[in-house]
Amino acid sequence: MPLDPLAKRLLTMMAAASSADRKRPTPDERRQALAKLMQFARADVTDVMRADAMLRGPAGNIGYRLYAPPSPQHSAPAPGFVFFHGGGMVAGSIETHDRIAAALAQASGCRLVSVDYRLAPEHKFPAAVEDAIAATQFVLANAASLGVDPARLVVGGDSAGATLAAVVCQHALQNAWPDIAAQCLICPVLDFEETSPSREEFAENHLIDRVTLQADLTDYLPKDADLADPRISPLRALHVAGLPPAIIHTAEYDPMRDEGNAYARKLLAAGVTVEHICHEGMIHNFHAMGAVLPQARLVLSQIGEQIRRAVG
């Protein structure tokens, strides 16, 4: 299918506003650019309560924001959703992804915990992974006080946040944690060991380009990092049988399309239940641009329905 006309218009506007001589962005430039982009997120979620708090992580306190959709008074614990924001492990925060987290909480009916994990280059790999694991353990251990049913916990994220979600689920399986009800991976980044055809085809002028991806990777990883390490490239995990049921959303014009599609196939082949949709005509991060892309509103509602089914 051709590139969606509204997505194409957005990309054209972004290209016109950027420098013709594309240089490696600094971490601050990357953070400012993502914050500006996330202003296109839908802003019509009004009935979700928010509360900020801290949890103890491996290197100090980790901020998180708890989102609580309306529920009947004296109701049973709600399903939970541990959410990790995108941003290439360099950018993003609970603030940039506030609207997305609220929309997912509303659509899914989950009490959602959005995690402000450590970012690179100040905190290189595996800092973000360690924080993601610690935050999920915290939610499981403190489910009652969070109003969450630990037997109905979803772990998910978008873009690089989906990387962390996939890694947490793999870690949980390897370490015999209580079962996670589902994993939700939105436009996931899952493989840095090999360059896929979609990474080549959409390396320029498709929202996130080759220069930015390489800058993020350089900022995130130590020089001696093994790109085949499943904590960096979850697609490279050898054993995936027994992982939680997966909800995976990819986009046709996303450089990371092929790795997300490949992970869906890999999980299916291992006997994992998978609901996978590759959205025609869409670009990376399209789900977060509901102010300009109608499909973004639809996909968040769709994900909410999928999660409701997954957690009963």
Protein model, in words:
- By secondary structure, the protein is α/β, with parallel strands linked by helices.
- It contains ten helices and eight strands.
- An eight-stranded mixed sheet has the order 1-2-4-3-5-6-7-8, sandwiched between helices.
- The longest helix has 17 residues, at 294-310.
- The radius of gyration is 18 Å and the shape is globular.
Strand content: 15-25%
Number of domains: 1
Helical content, roughly?
A: 25-40%
* Major sheet description: 8 strands, mixed
| Low-confidence parts | none
Structure class? alpha/beta
Shape from CA axes?
Answer: globular
Output the CATH topology: Rossmann fold
Count of DSSP-assigned helices: 10
Mean pLDDT: 95
Biggest sheet strand order reads 1-2-4-3-5-6-7-8
CATH class: Alpha Beta
CATH architecture: 3-Layer(aba) Sandwich
Overall number of strands: 8
Annotated CATH homologous superfamily? Alpha/Beta hydrolase fold, catalytic domain
Question: What are the secondary-structure elements, in order, as H or E?
Answer: HHEEEHEHHEHEHHEHEH
Q: From the alpha carbons, calculate the radius of gyration and give it in angstroms.
A: 18 Å
Straight-line distance between termini: 34 Å
Please outline what is shown here.
The chain has ten helices and eight strands.
